[in-house]
Every structure is written in C-alpha cells, then in structure tokens.
Amino acid sequence: MQKLGQHFLKNAAILQEIADAVDVKKGETVIEVGPGHGELTVPLLQTAEHSEGRVIAIEKDRSLIAPLDALGKKGGSDLFTIIEGDALELLPDIVGKLHQYRYRIAGNIPYYITGKLLRVISELERKPERVVLLIQREVAERICAAPPAMNRLAASVQFWAEPKIVMFVSKEDFLPPPDVDSAVIILDPKKIAAKNRATIADGAYYKAVRAIFAQPRKTLLNNLSSMSGGNVSKGDIAGHLTSIGIAPGARPQDLDIGQIIAIANAPLWG
Fold first, then answer.
1. Which of 145, 164, 199, 210 sits at a 20 to 30 Å CA gap from 228?
2. CA atoms of 110 and 8, how far apart (whole Å)
3. How many CB atoms lie within 10 A of CB 10?
C-alpha cells in the first residue's frame, strides 16, 4: 500500500546498485531516510556488516516500524536502529548525536520532500560523507544542470555538493508505479573555502540565489536591482558586476557557482 507519497522500488539489482553507490567505509553510519518495507535497508545492512558500520533508519509511517525492527534484528544483528518520526525534523539531532563519527545518507524518498530534505542537509553543520537518493528524474537533472541551463535548485545544491546521476530508473520498477521515471543521484559534499563560509552563516549566498533566479527571463542587473530594494543604483550594481567579470546583461541561467558566490560576497547589499 502506498502511504505518505512513497513508491517502493522492487528491482533487487537496482537496490543493490544504490547500496553500492553509498560506498560505506569502515566504521561509518548510514542514515536511511524513509526505509518503507526495508527494500533498500537489506542491502545497506549487508554493506554495513562488511564495513563494521551500522544503519539508522528514520520512518514516519508507524505501521512500518515493527516490521522494520524485526527485519533489522533478523539473525541477531545489532547493526540496525529504527527511529519513528519525520526525517526533516529529526535529522539534525540524529547527526548531532553521532558526534565525530563519519556518516552517509541514503534513501528512496517521497518526491514531495526532496527540496526540503536537501535544504535540511545543506544546513547541517557537519555534512555527510556522501548522500545517495532515488528521486524524480527531472529533479535530478535540474540539480546537475550547468550553464547555460543553471537554475535555482542547481545553484542551491551545487554550493555545498558535487552532484552526479548514477542511473535512471523506470517507473515500472516501482510498486505502485509513479507517474514519472526516477534517477539515483550522488551528492558528494564540498569542502567550502573559509572565505565563503560567511555567505552561509548570514544567508547571503541563498539570498543571492533567490534574487538572481526570482525572474529567470530577466537580466541579472534587473534581478539584482530588485534584491537591493532600491538602495543601490543600477549603475553601481552594473559597475560591480563588470569588476568581477560578469556582464550586467547576462541571464541567471548563464552563471556558474563561482560567479554566484562572488555576487553573494558583494558589499553592495550587505
């Protein structure tokens, strides 16, 4: 039965490939978001056992907790912990309790939480070693976009992670089948340079992203003028853009991450 927007992957070969993509190293913890019936949990547990790691699964559907717990304890395994609740709310606390242990995040997640989950992960003070998610194909392709097809989602994710699509998954591989195809995406967090950390701390980078892509058809100059709230003249904005090598008439989709960071760090709107 489909609950909470979940579509359960039934292709065992793909499930194994997802577990392989997580690439758990010795002693690491895998946090699985939305384990469902445990389809992905089983290969993740096998991987964890071989790497002397463990799996922590967060499941919102109460009816699935007992079966998942039984699945984890099968064979007397102590590698598995199931936590009932909303991953969007619980993830920061769970990561905090891991202290300095390295961890990874994986999951076949409901499509509707993709954006929110990515935002939660982006805000974690200590990032995972890797994130592997099965998400809507179109969304995965948007995340991996580059100029001249940059977009707000890609700019938001690529600031903190390098994305890569591992494979596409047909809707026929799910039960019940969704309306669209899916994709497995890897996100490998970046080491953000110290000079750019302030753009996270004060929200400057994401503020810039929102302004730059507020109206994608407009020029960068017009969008940034709106961002300034009229406090900075278009002439000053154009002059600054030119000074950092960006044409004022450029379109948002033409920018790369480095250019967006440079705009976010501009002293014009502080």
1. 145
2. 10
3. 14
Distance CA 74, CA 70 (A): 6
Q: Say whether the peptide bond before residue 67 is cis (omega within 30 degrees of 0).
A: no
Domains, the chain, ranges and CATH?
8-191 (3.40.50.150), 195-264 (1.10.8.100)
Smallest CA-to-CA distance from 104 within 33, 15, 10 is with: 33
What does the pLDDT read at residue 162?
97
pLDDT value for 56: 96
Spell out a b/e string for 240-262, using b for 16 or more CB atoms within 10 Å of the CB, else e.
bbeeeebebebbbbebebebbbb
Interatomic CA distance for residues 244 and 264, integer angstroms: 12
What secondary structure does DSSP assign to 225-243, as a single string? Answer: HHHTTTSS-HHHHHHHHHH
174-175 and 8-9: which strand pairing? antiparallel
What does the alpha-carbon distance between residue 249 and residue 224 come to, in Å, rounded to a whole number? Answer: 11
pLDDT of residue 2: 47
The span from the CA of 25 to the CA of 193, in Å, is 25
Residue with tokens 């990874």: 104
What DSSP line would sit under 88-121, residue for residue? Answer: HHHHHHHHHHTTT--EEEEEE--GGGHHHHHHHH
Q: Is 38 helix (H, G, I), strand (E, B) or coil?
A: coil
d(CA 145, CA 182): 16
Mapping DSSP onto H, E and C, the string for 146-183 reads CCCCCCHHHHHHHCCEEEEEEEEECHHHEECCCCCCEE
pLDDT of residue 100: 85
CA dist., res. 43 & res. 21, Å (int): 11
